[in-house]
Amino acid sequence: METVRLSSKGQFVLPKAIRDLRHWGPGTELVILERDSEVIIRAAKPFAETLLELADAAPIYSGTPLTIEDMDRAIAAEAGKRR
User: Fold this and answer.
1) Is residue 62 part of a domain?
2) Is residue 5 part of a domain?
3) What is the count of structural domains for the chain?
4) What is the distance between the alpha carbons of residues 72 and 74, in angstroms, rounded to a whole number?
5) What are the E-state strand segments in the chain?
């Protein structure tokens, strides 16, 4: 734990060890949260959470790979059912 001091403008320097550990370089945007009696500093996410980030939660297909033609046929068959 390190102690920092606020400047007259309310600024402080994040210790280099923390910046290095978090890979926070110049220009990194940070979010400041207040929760109960704590202040939490996090890196701002540059983009909203995407489906790609959630892909690890998706089940892994272990069957025979499908061809594009197989997929096209399946899509056409399903579309035909919905008409």
Assistant:
1) yes
2) no
3) 1
4) 5
5) 30-35, 38-43
Token pair, residue 35, equals 């929760």
Give residue 62's domain range. 52-81
Q: How far apart are CA 83 and CA 27, in angstroms?
A: 53
Dist CA 44 CA 29 (whole Å): 5
Question: Over its length of 83 residues, how does the chain's per-residue pLDDT go in tens digits?
Answer: 889 999 999 999 999 999 999 999 999 999 999 988 999 999 998 766 666 667 777 778 888 999 999 999 999 999 988 87
pTM for the predicted model, two decimal places? 0.51
Task: Select from 24, 43, 16 the least CA-distant residue to 32.
Answer: 43
Q: Does a structural domain hold residue 14?
A: no
